[in-house]
Write a structure and sequence with these properties.
- The protein is mainly α and 77 residues long.
- 66% of the residues lie in helices and 0% in strands.
- It contains four helices and no strands.
- It has helices at 14-27, 32-37, 41-57, 62-75.
- The chain starts with 13 loop residues before the first helix and ends with a helix.
Length: 77
């Protein structure tokens, strides 16, 4: 359980809702950290910008990104 409650999906803007719905489709549920980021739209957009930048740079393979994300998540528990 997150220490900070995530955002209520009925209260988010269209951009945030679209991103969270895409995560729901891909992963089965919105990612918990993104639900927390979504409490502040500017922070949410900044985090999304970072991930989009990493992905579009082509410097890190998508499969490696997933492994890195899991490793960072395990460290941050």
């Amino acid at each position: 359980m997150a220490r900070i409650a995530g955002v209520n999906l009925s209260e988010v803007n269209r951009y945030t809702k679209d991103v969270l719905e895409a995560q729901q489709k891909k992963w089965g549920a919105p990612l918990l950290n993104h639900l927390v980021y979504a409490r502040r739209p500017t922070i949410f957009r900044g985090a999304q910008g970072m991930w989009i930048g990493i992905e579009s740079s082509g410097l890190i393979d998508a499969k490696l990104q997933a492994l890195i994300n899991r490793r960072v998540a395990s460290i941050n528990l």
